[in-house]
Amino acid sequence: MMNRLTRLLCRLALATWATSMALAADSIQGSECMDCHGDPDLTAVNEAGQTVSLHVDGAKHGASVHGAMPCAACHGDISRQHPDDNLAAKRVDCAACHEAQSSSHGASLHGAAAKDGAEAARCSDCHGSHQVLRDTSPDSTLHHSKISATCGACHPRAAQAVAESVHGLAAIRGERDAALCTDCHFEHARAAVDGASARRLSAQICGQCHAAEPIAASFRPAPDPVKTFYQSYHGLAVQYGSTRAANCASCHGYHRILPSHNPDSSIHPNRLVETCGKCHPGATENFARGRIHGDGGRGKDTGSVVNRWVRSAYIVIILTVVGLMAAHNLAVWLLKAAAARRAPGRSVMRMDRTQRIQHMLLFVSFIVLAITGFALKYPDSWMAWVLGADDAIRRGLHRIFGILLLATAVWHVLYVLTTTEGKRLFRDFWPRRHDVREAADRIRSLAGKTPLRPRRGRFGYVEKIEYWAVVWGVVIMGVTGLMIWLKIDVTRILPRWAVEVATTVHYYEAILACLAVVVWHAYHVVFDPGVYPMNWAWWDGRVADEMCREEDSPARRA
User: Fold this and answer.
1) Cβ-defined contacts of 536-541 (< 8 Å, 24+)
2) Is 241 exposed, middle or buried (0-12, 13-18, 19+ CB in 10 A)?
3) To 10 degrees, what angle do helices 391-418 and 353-377 make?
4) How many domains does the structure of the chain reveal?
């Protein structure tokens, strides 16, 4: 059975080779093709009954990007029996060499229409057939000076409208940066401008030029048209997904875009009522005079000037009123905090000097690390703005205070291992069984089932949760932070994805730590009515006697 199959495969391979050799021998050489197609008068009648030229200019073909290729490379269906076999040459399949470009063209409007059997632009309609040149060549049909004519061969009315527009006139003047057909519609576009979302139209199509400083600065009469559009009612509605809000083309048009001083322009003062009335029936002249784009605070018309003065006045009023309120309340809070610190009965030493210094270093490094870390993650945020535009500053500060945090952690470990007070501190922070009972008692008392009993020990479950959360957070943030910082060295040992996982852990652990500090720690040291306006132990180490009076009480041990 295997021998038969082997012989069959061998015969099939031999037949295929013989066929290919026969076809190669039967193909016509390029010089033979030009014997006929070099004649300028050579014509034929196509299926539509039209007389078409079959002339090929050998010089032009030789100068094209395909000049070194034989005719049979594209016209492999032509044999030596041509033209006596009366078989017309088949349409060239460009995908045989240009698969990616053919695939993207097939997904475009032209490609989709061609698949449906409609007459639509194919490769040769835009690139040419025997004279395919690079788009940098002035003779190329895709050269920037000829794009309008190439597209206009199939879209004459659109081409004429563009020629009369600000874009077309700029292109005629030789402005290289002027918008062309392919700048808005793209060459092998996967999505059409027609039906595009207003947000995509504004940002990706119009915005690619009008939001680009080097290009737009040469043409636009007003600053930041895309930015100021997004500041307007229409722009805000577009950003949040409205499909009915006006976009760029709604007011300015699309092909025949004219300057506002042209009487035929849709944004000329005499036609604004008509333009606005398309979406706002009954629009009046006063309504149409409203500002469509945000003025960015730079408008010089009466309305903009009045608006700017009102805005400035309100900013001054807000800053003054709210600033005085904040100053008043801050002064009251400081007086109450100072009075609480001077109040008698704060004789219990909760934190010695070393512990207070370590706490202060932890506090400062945590705040700076949070601000610089989120500034690095979100370079457009207010935190990044406060630290300056250069991310090297943010990165440098983040690393310096990261080292400070780790150094403080190492100092604390040595402190609890080598000093008497440090060992006592560690013993008092060690979780014990009565901490679970204390937490359960607190939950029952919050539910109103039992009265709250006094706690036992120097630190309750609240302080212990905070302490061990800090230990956990410093270890996790320290390890992952060093992995991100020393990623080149890390990837000599671990796979690259380990650094990516470390980055994810570092980011979400930072969020967890910041929220825990705000929700848990800030409440127990500031907002708890028993310590408000502040627990001063972080400053002088002392707490009120009543906070510790019931620690180790017989009632609690019972």
Assistant:
1) 536/337, 536/340, 536/341, 536/346, 537/350, 537/351, 538/351, 538/356, 538/359, 538/360, 538/363, 539/341, 539/356, 540/341, 540/356, 541/349, 541/350, 541/351, 541/352, 541/353, 541/355, 541/356
2) exposed
3) 150
4) 3
Q: What's the start-to-end Cα distance of the chain, in Å?
A: 93
**Does any domain span residue 113?**
no
What CA–CA distance (Å, rounded) separates 234 from 242? Answer: 9
In a domain, 116, yes or no: no
Are residue 162 and residue 241 in the same domain, yes or no? yes
Question: Is 476 inside a domain boundary?
Answer: yes
Amino acid at 430: W
CA distance 80 to 29: 9
pLDDT for 315: 92
Sign of the torsion formed by the C-alpha atoms of 333, 339, 341 and 343: negative
Alpha helices in 27-122 (DSSP H): 30-37, 58-63, 99-106, 109-115
pLDDT band at 360 (very low <50, low <70, confident <90, very high): very high
Task: Report which of 486, 466, 489 is spatially closest to residue 478, judged by C-alpha positions.
Answer: 486
Q: Which residues span the domain enclosing 144?
A: 127-288
Residue type, 503: T
* 284 and 304 both lie in a single domain: no
58 exposure class (CB count in 10 Å sphere: 0-12, 13-18, 19+): middle
Question: What pLDDT band is residue 478 in, cutting at 50, 70 and 90?
Answer: very high
* Spatial separation of the C-alpha atoms in residues 456 and 1, rounded to whole Å: 89
**What are 3-14's pLDDT values in tens digits?**
454 444 444 444
Are 163 and 218 members of one domain?
A: yes
